[in-house]
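Quick one, T. Sequence first:
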Amino acid sequence: MEKPLALTLGEPAGIGPDIAIKAWLRREELKLPPFYLLGDSGFVGRRAKVLGLDVKFADVDTGHAAAAFSDALPVVSTGHAATCAPGQPDGRSADAALASIRHAVADVRAGHASAVVTNPIAKSVLHRAGFRHPGHTEYLAELAAEQGQTPQPVMMLWSPLLAVVPVTIHASLREAIGQLTTDLIVSTARIAASALKNRFGVKNPRLALSGLNPHAGEDGTLGSEDQTIVAPAVKILQAEGIAAKGPLPADTLFHDAARKTYDCAVCMYHDQALIPIKTLAFEDAVNVTLGLPFIRTSPDHGTAFDIAGTGRANPASLIAALRLAARMACPKAPSSPKQ
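Structure tokens:
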């Protein structure tokens, strides 16, 4: 029997429990890969009642999760109960959310699960409880550290229409420009190319690197960074045999014809990458963390406190994240990751 996916609870007061339940209810219709939820079955059961959904839950250990999946939503206890109401986060949410992430990573690294799929967390809630990381990505990198070596986590946003990777992630625009170096671009692009080849089955990944400045600097008249930082990175990647091109003007990189010329756009800062993919694929984009010794995907949306417990949460992005995690765990050989 295939190994199940480990799905985290996310922020308990958010829509994570809602979309987990909704995804499981559509398991047969959509032929979803087996997964189990890491949390507290009593809490999730109460959320199901609030939603008016008839759901059977199974308290299991990881070894019995896949077998239980067809008849009940498997829930593996983390030992941290959640008590908050929908849309009303409190400090008690933090332990339940973080324990779920730690447990999922431990299960995958122990070989009990094939991948980690994370529901959205509320960073503001975690920070008030002493969480010191900018977000999920950096926390996962710490959990993945071995013998003092912390991997470089790389964020990919994937959808059937577009795949993007931002070189700098959770930083202000001013800080992002200061962080940008040729070495960082090269290391990020290498990780992206390796993942496309080994996890997505792309034989010869094509990378399009955006410029930092308008019109990719217009030959230095709109800033020198594209000539002195980005262009040298492209040359290094090309010399290593990676099909990279750029720096390319970001404002013409994402229309239909342009997207057909590459498998992934490597962008210089957060919004340069995320605005186009959220415009094109808001409902089904998936957040993937590359560069870790395990697979991690996540819905590309937040906790949506305003609709938690109302029944209005759309599980489409979580369903896409579950499917992509299973695909990455057993890659085939498509011609493009955008399939």
